[in-house]
Write a structure and sequence with these properties.
Elements (H helix, E strand, L loop, with lengths): L9 E3 L20 E5 L3 H13 L3 E5 L2 H11 L3 E5 L7 H10 L5 E5 L4 H9 L4 E4 L4 H15 L10 E4 L3 E4 L4 E4 L11 E4 L2 H12 L5 E2 H9 L8 H14 L9 E4 L3 E4 L7
Parallel strand pairs: 2-3, 2-4, 4-5, 5-6
Antiparallel strand pairs: 1-7, 7-8, 8-9, 9-10, 11-13, 12-13
Helix pairs in contact: 1-5, 2-3, 6-7, 6-8, 7-8
The site of calcium ion (CA) has 5 residues, from loops.
């Protein structure tokens, strides 16, 4: 027939229509559990001091194996990870942490070129702070990550679902289940977990289906740091989402690239 395949994405946002998701971090909440992985003892102590001052519970370790052991034993709400470590490299630690779930990860590293930053973010880090840095900058980044990754309270809990692909995202765990998304119509169940950045990006797109959102707007949704604009972060998150959800940049059913502008969630309008 050659007729264009009907794209139909129905969006339901039962809970987050009026309040923002992810919700803001509540300053009255108990501090987060933060795992510092840093082989330089002085810097490690300094970071611990600053984070404890902010009310966080801090565990610090000097190498990757100790980091994975500490994470296995006690978990963490956020990991601050140096990349250049003795023994196991930070990149390998990051991958191992990612396999264990969606804990937010902030990379601190002397590797500071754009390519190195992008490589870290592509592995699934949530933010990247180049050394040397001001400890206040680190605590600000930590607060920003916690704001956008804190699990919703019971009142905020809900399901974001996209029909046609039947994509269901649980914002608390960021686990998703996707069925029937294959371009040929074959039901193909896929399940996994999004990073906080990927989930925030998907939610931002899903709230305005069919609307083109610029990289700037999307960066604001995922990073909330318009002063530090490296918009390729958005491209990295979109690429990761497409890979996880089986979307095809060349024939997208979920996220369409608008050249030189940004992205939009593919959706039909009921005006025919
Ligand atoms: Ca180091």
């Amino acid at each position: 027939m050659g007729s264009r395949r009907e794209e139909r994405v129905k969006i339901t946002l039962p809970v987050f229509t009026s309040s923002e998701w992810p919700p803001h971090y509540d300053a009255h909440m108990p501090g987060a559990r933060i795992l510092i992985v840093e082989d330089e003892p002085q810097l490690r102590s300094l970071l611990r001091l600053y984070l404890e001052r902010d009310g966080h519970q801090v565990t610090d370790v000097g190498d990757g194996m100790a980091a994975l052991a500490a994470f296995d034993a006690d978990g963490a709400d956020l990991v601050i990870l140096d990349l250049m470590l003795p023994g196991m490299q930070g990149e390998a630690v990051l991958e191992a942490l990612r396999e264990g779930g969606g804990v937010p990860i902030l990379i601190t590293s002397a590797k500071r070129t754009d390519a190195e930053r992008i490589a870290g973010l592509r592995l699934g880090a949530d933010d990247y702070l180049a050394k040397p840095f001001n400890p206040h900058e680190l605590t600000a980044r930590v607060a920003a990550i916690l704001r956008r990754t804190r699990p919703p309270t019971a009142a905020e809990e809900g399901i974001l679902s996209l029909e046609r692909g039947r994509l269901v995202l649980d914002p608390a765990s960021r686990r998703y289940t996707l069925t029937g998304a294959d371009a040929t119509g074959e039901p193909v169940p896929v399940a996994g977990r999004l990073t906080p950045g990927e989930a925030a990006l998907l939610v931002a797109l899903a709230r305005r289906p069919g609307t083109v959102l610029s990289r700037e707007v999307l960066l604001e949704a995922v990073a909330r740091r318009p002063d530090e604009v490296y918009e390729r972060v958005v491209d990295v998150h979109v690429a990761n989402l497409r890979r996880k959800l089986g979307d095809d940049a060349g024939a997208p059913w979920l996220i369409e690239t608008i050249p030189a502008t940004g992205y939009r969630l593919v959706a039909s309008r009921d005006d025919s």
